[in-house]
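If you are new to this repository, start here. Below is one unmodified record pulled from the training split, so you can see the exact layout before writing a loader.
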Amino acid sequence: MKKWILLIVTLAVAAASALAARLCPAVGRVVDEQGKAVEYASVVLLKGTQQVVGMASDADGRFELKVAPGEYTLQIQYLGFDPVKRIVRVEQNNDLGEIVMRNAATRIEGVVVSAQLVRREADRFVVDVANAPSAIGKDGIELLEHAPGVWIDGEKISINGKSGSKVYINDRELRMDDEQLLTYLRSLRAEEIQKIEVVPVTGADYDADSSAGVIRITLKKRRENGLNGSVAFNTAQSGYIGSYSPSANINLHSGRLDFYASAWGYLDNSKTISDEKTVYNASNKGLTARSEGTSNDRNFGINAGSILEIDTRNSIGAEVEYWRNRSWGPTDTATDLGDGQQTANTRSRFDNHNYGNNYTVTFNYIHKLDTLGSTVKLLADYTRRDSDAGNDNTSRTTSADGTLDSLYRDNAASIYDVATATLALEKNFSPRWSLKAGAKYTFNDMRNNARYEYQKNGAWLRNDEQSYTVNYTENIAAAYATATAQLGRWSLVAGIRGEYTLTHGKSGDIRQNYFSLFPNANISYALSQEKGHSVILQYARTIQRPRFWCLNPQRWQISDYTYQTGNPSLDPAFQNDLNITFVLAGKYTLTGGMQIVDGEIQQTMLADPDDPDMLRIAWVNFDATTNYYVTANLPFQPAKWWQLNLNAVYMRRGQRVEQHGAQQHFNWAFVNASTTFNLPAKFYIDLSYAYQSRIDLGNIWVMPNHFLQAGVKKRFGERFVLSFSARNLLDQGQKVGAAGDGFVRTVNIRQAWGKIQYRFGVTWNFKSGKAFNRKSVEAGSAEEKKRL
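And here is the target side for that same chain:
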């Protein structure tokens, strides 16, 4: 495979030299009246009324447009500024200089360059949230649900069907478990977000543990000295949930100093009802069960950071963050297990709690090397999480043999430490050539202690078979280099990352050390520069390291005859991803690709070796997985007042769970359609539909599901936004199943995210003085936090 990729790169370079059309770059910089950069402005060149090429200005306001020599109309637009339109002549090496945008006397409403709303760049999709009326009043989850290739099933986020995707906010990864991550994203408001980038396949400048892709969320930035912020409150109500989400943020800029802080909370009371049927083929037994669980969540987070510009080339930044999560609640179950002649009735209560504290400290130093955007960065991060989780369980089983009462409990304390140090160089030699290189060291440490006890004759006795102490230490040293070249119609990116890993602990105090290379290549060719047609070929090799909580062998009793546990013997998985993307008109995309995974980490359901009536959900390494997939993204704007977006993913999945076993094949499909109508008086109507086909993972499956949403929003000036929506109008539950040696299990689940609910939200934006350029502290421990 490596030889094949090298051959492709070599042939592409040769072809670029021979076939590249004579295109001239037109470069420039967009600034405001004070000379400050205008980020993410829409910059296009027109031939008559036809758009030839377009892009968004970068973080320094710079842009580079490549077209054939000739005369064009340059048009620049950004909300809050008067549009710029001028005639330019493009010849060899054009520098258009600084182009000044003036503040609009009245704020522009609905200025949108449709080609920029959802566009495909060389390695990612970009959703221009700031210029999308459909985004008003939505939270982070609702925006991601409509991003190309992204799927959220209420529990986790995936890109093109690959679970475990990482999420960044302003270049910093959110290192949380799935539930915490979704809770935080719900606290984000669309009014805070500038753009969302979806990177399905990552390059060598990302940690190799990014096999499921990356989602990058960039928060809005302001200009000039002053103070601004927002306060928001959202609530969701239904028969299964009552949630309340307050949030606030404040940003201050004065001279060379930036300060920012934010706080959010999430309080809810929810319930889950499930009905289970299990058939035990070997013993001719049958089981029916009903579980009703309640959960109380009291979560909040705060963060504060500051950046000081020492001079025009040097800056330092620091940020502190604290998160607290508290959840607790009982689950009551009623189970009947019989063989046709006699039945055992079990009534139980599983009362659980999960408390955690999370602390993060970040420091960085950034030195600008030149005026082309070249930088040297030194990043250091430290994160600690401590958690306390436990259960108090009571059961009473009644059968022909009498009544048996059981009391048992457990408590697990865990401490996770993550520290990283990064040195990164980004050198731009010219608008055509750039280089990224760096080195990184990561230290991960996990300490787990659990005590399981049962009551006998009024005394609590330790269960030595289930109690455990599991410690795991991981050291990762990495170095990478990535080169980028713009050769006429060709764009080439090639890189390689080397990682050496030393681990100690896991199961049986085992030591492991291994070195791996992770190459990547990205080749794009503009089929028609004028019409925005292009083709992109990508390859990357990545690694999937087990998340820390997957390695934790804590046992969670889900129902009377089902429990879940981690697996400290998990090994990392390695993935090769090869795909080709066709882009039409700069925004319509069709991607086809193949993923080959060795040792994929997934869950499976097995019979307990000591009690075959008891089933356990455990994490395991699959032997081999081969996926073939096709994705399509079609953003439309049939009229100025109507936006429509269609996303679809199809995957042909081949999986072999056991070594030398038979390979099974399954078909997956995800479809999402959303539309927004912009009405007079600043009213907006949103409608969306999503479909998920049956999903098979090992011996576990999830049945198809449909989701229908509708909502209305009203904007009052620029300060207030009110929103109301009804989600999951089809009011469907979820059906899951599993089949193993000697059993077949099906469960119908009704829970908050799959049932109808009503949401109401209000946002107030405030500012004092002039607007300003809001910055954030860049973190280096990007890929580690997700494993927490």
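Two things worth knowing about this chain: The helical segments are 2-19, 114-117, 140-144, 178-187, 548-551. The radius of gyration is 27 Å.
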